[in-house]
Amino acid sequence: MVDLTVRVGPTVLKSPLLLASGTCGFGREVAEYEDLFVIGGICTKGLTLMPRLGNEGCRTAETPSGMLNSVGLQNPGVHAFLRDELPNMRSFGTKIIVNVAGHDTDDYFRMAQILGDPSVPVDVIELNLSCPNVKEGCMTFGASEEGVYQIVKGVREYTDKPVWVKLTPNVTSITETALAAENAGAGAVVLINTLLGMAIDIKSRRPVLQNNTGGLSGPAIKPIALRMIAECDQVLHIPIIGCGGIASAKDVIEFMIAGASAVQIGTMSLLHPGICEKITNDLICYAESESIERLSDLTGTLLRW
Amino acid sequence: MVDLTVRVGPTVLKSPLLLASGTCGFGREVAEYEDLFVIGGICTKGLTLMPRLGNEGCRTAETPSGMLNSVGLQNPGVHAFLRDELPNMRSFGTKIIVNVAGHDTDDYFRMAQILGDPSVPVDVIELNLSCPNVKEGCMTFGASEEGVYQIVKGVREYTDKPVWVKLTPNVTSITETALAAENAGAGAVVLINTLLGMAIDIKSRRPVLQNNTGGLSGPAIKPIALRMIAECDQVLHIPIIGCGGIASAKDVIEFMIAGASAVQIGTMSLLHPGICEKITNDLICYAESESIERLSDLTGTLLRW
Amino acid sequence: MKKEYRIPLLSNVAVGSATHVLTFRSKEIAAAANPGQFVNVSSDLFLKRPFGVLDTDPEAGTFSIGVRRIGAGTGYICDAVPGTFFEVLGPLGNGFVFDQTKRIIAIGGGTGIFPLRFALKRARELGIPSLSLNGFRSKSDIILLSSFEEVADQVRISTDAGDFGTKGNVVNLLSELTKEEMKDAILMTVGPEIMMKNVAKWADGAGLFCQVSLEKRMACGIGACLVCVCKVKAEAEGEPFRHVRCCKEGPVFAASEVIW
Amino acid sequence: MKKEYRIPLLSNVAVGSATHVLTFRSKEIAAAANPGQFVNVSSDLFLKRPFGVLDTDPEAGTFSIGVRRIGAGTGYICDAVPGTFFEVLGPLGNGFVFDQTKRIIAIGGGTGIFPLRFALKRARELGIPSLSLNGFRSKSDIILLSSFEEVADQVRISTDAGDFGTKGNVVNLLSELTKEEMKDAILMTVGPEIMMKNVAKWADGAGLFCQVSLEKRMACGIGACLVCVCKVKAEAEGEPFRHVRCCKEGPVFAASEVIW
Ligand SMILES: Cc1cc2nc3c(=O)[nH]c(=O)nc-3n(C[C@H](O)[C@H](O)[C@H](O)COP(=O)(O)OP(=O)(O)OC[C@H]3O[C@@H](n4cnc5c(N)ncnc54)[C@H](O)[C@@H]3O)c2cc1C
Ligand SMILES: Cc1cc2nc3c(=O)[nH]c(=O)nc-3n(C[C@H](O)[C@H](O)[C@H](O)COP(=O)(O)OP(=O)(O)OC[C@H]3O[C@@H](n4cnc5c(N)ncnc54)[C@H](O)[C@@H]3O)c2cc1C
Ligand SMILES: Cc1cc2nc3c(=O)[nH]c(=O)nc-3n(C[C@H](O)[C@H](O)[C@H](O)COP(=O)(O)O)c2cc1C
Ligand SMILES: Cc1cc2nc3c(=O)[nH]c(=O)nc-3n(C[C@H](O)[C@H](O)[C@H](O)COP(=O)(O)O)c2cc1C
Ligand code: FES
Ligand code: FES
């Protein structure tokens, strides 16, 4: 039987499949549909230091093969998370990746200090430098090399836990921000967060989303994610976690071939809870029919023309 | 009856519908399916100074609600175009927008000189600073303010004809490159060209496209195009031509509300030749049911939250 | 473990000009659904569409929904032929609460009448007296009248046009209620937001407990993505309000909680 | 003016394990299609799929295609039930040339046999003697044999497995031809690229004119987008080669032009 285990630096995941931040809350709901014990890990909804109510009004719009969201980081704050959610999450028996977002560099450092403490049972800190739906912080940092470098470097001083850096695709050169993350000590980069988009209601002549813009996710963005991963795979020395529109085992294989050590499933797991089980089964079938012993052998095997 | 006429600076178009560059060749094929006399104009396949054979091998891949192409600017060169295609194009009775692409700044200047000559019957020069499928030039220029400014400024010295600048969405800030175009004297900006993407064949572990990457077009990219147009509409003083995934009259209206004075239809006209006639009819119905006298009144009427 | 079902459409019956009743086979949903809960149904578009459960037949293992044609998604669903397969999640959310209910007044408008039909049926099963008040634009828009008469003790109709029942909207029907009819009654209302808001206001004035079923754009429908939140009153001090999930904590809320 | 047709599927017949013959109603396509031309057919995916025309019935106003199940697009098409509507462009491209043809040898493999069936039918109508050589993997893969026997003067089969006809591939069939049979013959070949390449090589050796039908990924199918180009010999000096559109200048080319 194929070995689904993958490594992301020091972190060993039971499977390359992770649930993406913001699309599985803190796992409670998806746990009713999916055996989380067999997946690689679960990324929490983006946490901030203080609780956030998120954006008001309409938060989603449907688009061709995708959706826009502008949740705006609604979350209970890091302290309530530790108290009310983490113990339950630990019971899933899978890796817990905590997605953190800040207004300013200090926010990131303080959260890294809290979550990075060895006594706090979280496995990985995922720095969200890419949320397009809040006015301050986040994507602003992720859009420049300096922003990424500064935050990752700072965070590294507060924790020895693996730090993954989730980057925004809304940049001219993804390799530059990815390299900045690597140089600052990131354990891995996560590619990609959502692309900034808009939907318009022609009746009211208003943006459908009350935040005016939102993040585009789903299969529509898959070709962009694949390209960015393949680009980064040529220059990075740290692992890449792929994300963006993954809907099938075939997609997972494409992302791994492009350079991903593991992948995150977001929108399609939202729309089809239980999808990880199906993808896992299909990955096993594929590996058996292709006589692949370790799925991780696929990573970065792209043959360029 | 509604007035479909729109103005793009000094250029009066019979309708806001243009056929996008590269998706209608030089109009010969589409003229068999579509009455080009009633549309606003037709943008030629990207021309280069010398003929180009384009990329070898597979040039297209299907993606969810979109496609990748890597034609690589196959074209007969500007001289053969003037001799073999332009006379026929003029017979369509619509505006001719010539899309030009160069290896280097000089290429653009020379083509502007040739096409910008008052004796050459082309109406508009569209500078393609955004083709992702050629190794040199094009997108490299369009990705930076300086690149855009330098080329547009230079081209302006060679011609008095309207110069539209087609920008790449593969940038951190579209308003910066758009403003650079405006400051350099562009008559309009065209937003957007394709997003850089990749597709992978898991059997061969190779990119489907022999050029490795290609440009993503079609409805998948529509939300990104809309957002970029709405962003630019807030800062620009020159007109915007919208492009990206337009498939229906509703889409045209959304693009106009977001800020577009006219729109280009690319991929969906490829897949459904004859679509302009349908969209035109639907636009007329819409305008009548909403008592809109001039369709151009829609432009830039977005009510932000 | 819960799952996304792939189930066939058994029948599709047009009721009124732009409304269809669709019946699906699903033992599990038929057995588990409660009034006010909804199902999230696929179409040929990207996101599923939420619809309140209209009826269940646990013995036959079927359930039905009423669908008004609005846009492309409901268009696809209304046009589907029996035998077509759909991906369906459900039953989802929290429905109406019937505990200690002595008398029910169900107030519906638009597509809101569908879940109320199920609530009235349940009330009948529980032996709770019920009164159904439904508002329509005009006589020709009235649908499912006999179906409501089957399950409600009394059915009253208002029409904006005044060509059937009371002229005006459902609030006019409410204001015609006798003291007797109002006594100990619990209100359940589903319909356009403005209607529910007015019903809630009326209920507040009348001192009656009122449950409302809110509608928000949804993606997952199971509480995972937070795109469907409703604004409700704060619990803790200092909080201006709370954002709760329409699909998980709702869609039915106590009207007194809702910030309109 | 040409147009994109929206036409119903009339019948869908499985022929062999993974191959279907689908018949559509379209007076226009039935009247206009020539052998070797193709139609571009929608599915539930983004791009249309190209298929060679297998047969036409201009009187009934119908045409048919043969479809081998390959991926999601052909899967959708093979599973479609009669009554389903498809968007279809066609007939497209340049088909086989019959001018001054004294004798035809049609050499097919895989899905290539479908357009050849139409070419043989046309040859019969034109009174041109014909010989059909089709290669299959094994006896159980042989399809449409009687249909070819209807229209070709002679039909010969090769199977890789050797359990029917000549053992080996179609080139083995070619090498068995007599001088008589080869005399003045024009070859028409459609099938896997490697097969056509070998046939073309053989034809070159034998001094016979050979037409091949190439397959490239397409988007528009009408010549507007340039994604489907084939590499053919240069015309002008200094040109290394030319890129011509499979969908417009092709799909049928003189084998001697093609750069494999
Ligand atoms: C809990 C709940 C129960 C519902 N019950 C019923 C019912 O029993 N019968 C019925 O006919 N309708 C019901 N609706 C409304 C129904 O979901 C919408 O009419 C439908 O989603 C419209 O889809 P569309 O593609 O036709 O419209 P479009 O306007 O094209 O849809 C665009 C997007 O907006 C969303 N949307 C549009 N209108 C609504 C709405 N009113 N509520 C939520 N999302 C919306 C769609 O889901 C889609 O994502 C219910 C909605 C909710 C939230
Ligand atoms: C001129 C021409 C005539 C053809 N005639 C026939 C015929 O008569 N019968 C038949 O069964 N098949 C024929 N084919 C091949 C048929 O078009 C493909 O098998 C089909 O497109 C595969 O689609 P899919 O979604 O099942 O496969 P996928 O591999 O999933 O398709 C992915 C993409 O690749 C393209 N593609 C895949 N294979 C081919 C191919 N061989 N040629 C061109 N594009 C391809 C698809 O169109 C699609 O865009 C013909 C192809 C061409 C170009
Ligand atoms: C509703 C929603 C909420 C999201 N919230 C977050 C978040 O809090 N933090 C984050 O890093 N990414 C967030 N994302 C982005 C996803 O984690 C993922 O990067 C993106 O959706 C692309 O992957 P997909 O196409 O598989 O969804 C969110 C996405 C969606 C759809
Ligand atoms: C096959 C193909 C070829 C294209 N060639 C060109 C080109 O030569 N020059 C150019 O500026 N844009 C070119 N484009 C980009 C389109 O003009 C358009 O900007 C883009 O496809 C987005 O619009 P759409 O989604 O409507 O297709 C090409 C697009 C496609 C699909
Ligand atoms: S729709 Fe996802 S939380 Fe309600
Ligand atoms: S498929 Fe568009 S030119 Fe051939």
Structure summary:
Chain A is of the alpha/beta class. In chain A, 30% of the residues lie in helices and 20% in strands.
Q: Could you name the key traits of this structure?
A:
heterotetramer; A: 305 residues; alpha/beta; TIM Barrel; eight-stranded parallel β-barrel; four-stranded antiparallel β-sheet; 9 helices; 16 strands; globular; C: 260 residues; Elongation Factor Tu (Ef-tu), domain 3; Rossmann fold; 2 domains; seven-stranded mixed β-sheet; six-stranded antiparallel barrel; 7 helices; 23% helix; 34% strand; binds flavin-adenine dinucleotide; binds flavin mononucleotide; binds FE2/S2 (inorganic) cluster
What would you note in describing this structure?
The complex is a heterotetramer, with two copies of chain A (305 residues) and two copies of chain C (260 residues). Helix content of chain A is 30%, strand content 20%. Chain A has 305 residues and is an alpha/beta fold. In chain A, strand 15, helix 7 and strand 16 form a beta-alpha-beta unit. In chain A, helix 2 runs parallel beside helix 4, helix 4 packs parallel to helix 5 and helix 7 packs across helix 9. The two termini of chain A are 32 Å apart. Chain C has two domains: 90 residues, Translation factors (Elongation Factor Tu (Ef-tu), domain 3, Beta Barrel), CATH 2.40.30.10; 111 residues, Nucleotide-binding domain of ferredoxin-NADP reductase (FNR) module (Rossmann fold). Helices cover 23% and strands 34% of the residues of chain C. Chain C has a seven-stranded mixed beta sheet with strand order 10-9-8-7-11-12-15, sandwiched between helices. Chain C is globular and about 50 Å long. At the A-C interface, strand 5, strand 6 and helix 8 of A face loops of C. Bound molecules: flavin-adenine dinucleotide (2 copies), flavin mononucleotide (2 copies) and FE2/S2 (inorganic) cluster (2 copies). The site of one flavin-adenine dinucleotide (FAD) has 23 residues of chain D, from strand 4, strand 5, helix 2 and helix 3.
